[in-house]
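Field: sequence (string)
Field: structure_tokens (string)

Example rows 1 and 2, in order.
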Amino acid sequence: MKISTRGRYGLRAMIDLALHEDEGRVTLAGIAVRQDLSLNYLESIFSALKRAGFVIGTAGAQGGYSLARPADQISLQSILEALEGDLSVFEEADIGTPIRAFLKQHVWDVIDREVENTLYATTLADMVKRIQLQESSAESSAL
């Protein structure tokens, strides 16, 4: 499985949005600066995320983005599917010989299920909690 730049940047941006949502609407410019991402690329990503129903965009001076539903209801898998489509490590065209079919069933499908289960079980809220815990641990150890 190879997740493209679009998927990786999309996850970073959505986690950033969830981290800063309590501050009100979050601007793409703010996300771009904090995550060192191209603003133009983020606009394209957020257009897809808006179409998929993950974010709500508001125009104007007080505009920005917010999550369309709570962070604990948005899995990493659903975000990646919206941005990437199929995440399988296996391409159906690869079934041609008995060994390829065997590998598909006993290796590639197993990998796909494990990755999918992990990504479905992990929400934006989980990521926010982990980041906050990591930051508080780092602050504690610095003292």
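Row 2 begins here:
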Amino acid sequence: MPTPLPDGAWPVMLTPFRADRSIDWEQVEAYADWLVDLGSAGVFTVALSSEMYDLTPVERLELAGRVVGAVDGRVPVIASAVGGSVDEIAESAAGLAEAGVTAAVLVSPLLATPDEPDSEWIRTAEQILDRVPGLDFGVYECPVPYKRLLTLETVRWMSGTGRFTFFKDTSHRADVMAARIDVLAGSPLRHYNAEISSLVESLGAGGAGFSGYAANIYPELVAWLCANHATAPQEEVATVQQVLSIAEHSINARYPSSAKFFLAHSSRLTMSSVSRWKPEGIGPHEGQPLIDLARYLEGAGLPALTPGRR
């Protein structure tokens, strides 16, 4: 039986690029180190936020390996197994295992077409698990190329295999999340909400933490919320969740470029806002409100917010 993953903040890592859109490996490693320093329970690289569909198969594996090296065992690292066929996904998962990840994450829309039932999804997943024995897996309900939410029966199947440890839930529905969390009870499969505005509610239902945009830019606040939602003064808890919701909404329009720009003005990181996925730049009209938000939050006196974002 695999060891359950830790509770808390699981950022979906951005991929820093240089001006020529090559990967900035120095900033990749600096970003991974920063996320761990600020309290992340684990890191999820080669995700949609990492621009995984705009990376080559070789780059995806190298990215996972570089992050594993930068983290150096301090927290678990997981990464998506990406491919257009069972063979490609299994090959990607095997490569990720060699790179040292704790779990390979299956991307839910890549395992079946929109018109195929979950029985076909399970059949594909079983083939991948059989081809990569000894490796733990996760599932991410990624919205691209289409959003495939798994049925409760499929979630029950995953929990019963003993091979899955990470579930990034993008249902954005408290009742769905509560039912899924109930099904996962007693298994090694942990539930991580992707919607910051409902995080406290999902944690109260027994969820393990959060994996989404807000943790990419404020990992320390997400970590604080996960650890203190039930014990801290509820006014403080509500304020932190509201601030995180506002911050996440502020970077949505030009994401992931906006998140990179935000970090360049709110942390020790110096990554550029260059993106392969969405190559439009961040100009003064889009950038100044992000700078203003970062400056405002610096002086807001929020619990656990590191002065200077070291």
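free_text_note (row 2): Strands lie at 8-9, 43-45, 77-81, 103-107, 136-140, 164-169, 190-193, 209-210.
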